[in-house]
């Protein structure tokens, strides 16, 4: 979709903002650009839509060299979202969203329908917010309108420059989650600038790490950047706690699970006691004949007479196969339970413990290899 082919930017005073950078952004992916301040992230983004002209190299959009295209027409083919939303303060929300469609000659009815559709997509009721001015919205709401405006003419490419950096942490978390859902639904090609490695890990399909001068140090999926940094620079940039960050990008698999003993709801308590007598842990998982999770029993629950169904305890929650290790571990810590049952739909698969979380991280550590080249 986008190819940066030996792109460079040198200013008249000799300052090199970006040096001979080659990078591919695949169709439908979200590629995050990260790096320290002054590494050329925003400059690179602005060269793609020619708000800044490159001094060398080519920028290809679907094979077309955009350095020879009309810059105004080019920008109408790309959505652009910046940190402070960039909304026109004198225009109402609906007018802001329809900026590009109106420039493209859409009629009023079509523009309004599109604006209302997109406001709903970003979680804003068009009847409630469409006729408000930007100053009547919160920072997070303004950012949502900015995303809606960028999507208005259905561009294939979105350029996003620190889009959520100016909002508070709670709203930022919600915006990130909502945008990832929107991106998965629409399949846009997104070039996303952020200084926050956690944001990049959460949102990106791949991460490109730049050092000062726009030098590409590594481009790879988040798990590889965190688990197998291509250089000391990348390792220092992602931080010594990168192992913890990998929890957010490592899914639970069936191979990660432990398998404590199980009993059936219809089993007599005497049978359950005999199972627990030889179990390595003082509990057993209660599983129905159809494989569904029913609860658990410990040594205290199985004392006396009756059946397991009369004395089982319900779990406070479960983890789903494919869910991240981070979320499951957070639930384990929050409830001080030591373990979390994992299900696939309604079917019980096993349990996750802090020990198995550690083993899963070790198993999923990428094999070190050189991933500095564009790909």
N- and C-termini, Cα separation: 12 Å
CATH top level of the largest domain is: Alpha Beta
- Calculate the mean pLDDT score and round it: 90
Q: What's the overall geometry? A: elongated
Strand order of the largest sheet: 6-7-8-3-9-10
Number of domains: 2
Give the CATH H-level superfamily of the largest domain.
P-loop containing nucleotide triphosphate hydrolases
Number of strands: 16
The computed structural class is: alpha/beta
Task: Characterize the structure shown.
The protein is α/β, with parallel strands linked by helices and 375 residues long. It has 2 domains: 2-248, Rossmann fold (3-Layer(aba) Sandwich); 254-361, CBS-domain (Roll). The protein is 34% helix and 23% strand. It has 15 helices and 16 strands. The protein has helices at residues 41-48, 71-75, 93-97, 99-103, 108-121, 126-129, 139-151, 169-186, 197-203, 222-227, 232-238, 242-245, 269-277, 325-335, 354-364, and strands at residues 2-10, 16-25, 30-34, 56-61, 64-65, 78-82, 157-161, 189-193, 206-211, 215-220, 262-263, 283-287, 293-298, 319-320, 340-344, 347-352. The chain has a 6-stranded mixed beta sheet, sandwiched between helices. Helix 5 (108-121) crosses helix 7 (139-151). Mean pLDDT is 90; it is low at 369-375.
């Amino acid at each position: 979709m986008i190819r940066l082919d030996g792109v460079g930017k040198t200013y008249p005073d000799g300052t090199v903002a970006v040096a001979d950078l080659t990078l591919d952004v695949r169709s439908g992916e979200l590629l995050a650009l990260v790096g320290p301040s002054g590494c050329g992230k925003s400059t690179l983004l602005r060269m793609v839509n020619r708000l800044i002209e490159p001094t060398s190299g080519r920028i290809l959009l679907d094979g077309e060299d955009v350095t020879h295209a009309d810059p105004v027409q080019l920008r109408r083919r790309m959505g652009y979202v910046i940190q402070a939303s960039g909304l026109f303060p004198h225009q109402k929300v609906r007018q802001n969203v329809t900026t590009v469609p109106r420039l493209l000659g859409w009629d009023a009815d079509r523009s309004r329908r599109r604006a209302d559709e997109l406001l709903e997509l970003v979680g804003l009721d068009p009847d409630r917010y469409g006729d408000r001015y930007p100053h009547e919205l919160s920072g997070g709401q303004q950012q949502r309108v900015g995303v809606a405006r960028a999507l208005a003419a259905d561009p294939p490419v979105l350029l996003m420059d620190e889009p959520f950096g100016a909002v508070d942490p709670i709203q930022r978390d919600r915006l990130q989650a909502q945008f990832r859902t929107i991106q998965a639904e629409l399949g846009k090609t997104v070039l996303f600038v952020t200084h926050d490695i956690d944001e990049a890990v959460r949102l990106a399909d791949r991460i490109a790490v730049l050092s000062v001068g726009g030098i590409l140090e590594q481009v790879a999926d988040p798990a590889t950047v965190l688990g197998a940094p291509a250089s000391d620079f990348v390792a220092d940039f992602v931080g010594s706690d990168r192992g913890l960050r990998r929890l957010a990008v490592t899914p639970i698999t069936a191979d990660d699970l432990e398998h404590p003993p199980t009993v059936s709801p219809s089993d007599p308590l005497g049978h359950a006691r005999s199972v627990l007598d030889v179990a390595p842990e003082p509990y057993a998982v209660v599983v129905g004949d159809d494989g569904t999770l029913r609860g658990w029993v410990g040594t205290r629950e199985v004392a006396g007479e009756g059946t397991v169904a009369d004395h089982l305890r319900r779990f406070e929650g479960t983890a789903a196969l494919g869910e991240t290790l981070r979320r499951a571990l957070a639930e384990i810590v929050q409830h001080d339970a030591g373990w979390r049952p994992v299900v696939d739909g309604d079917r019980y698969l096993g349990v996750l413990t802090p020990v198995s979380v550690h083993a899963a991280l070790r198993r999923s550590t990428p094999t070190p290899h050189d991933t500095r080249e564009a790909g």
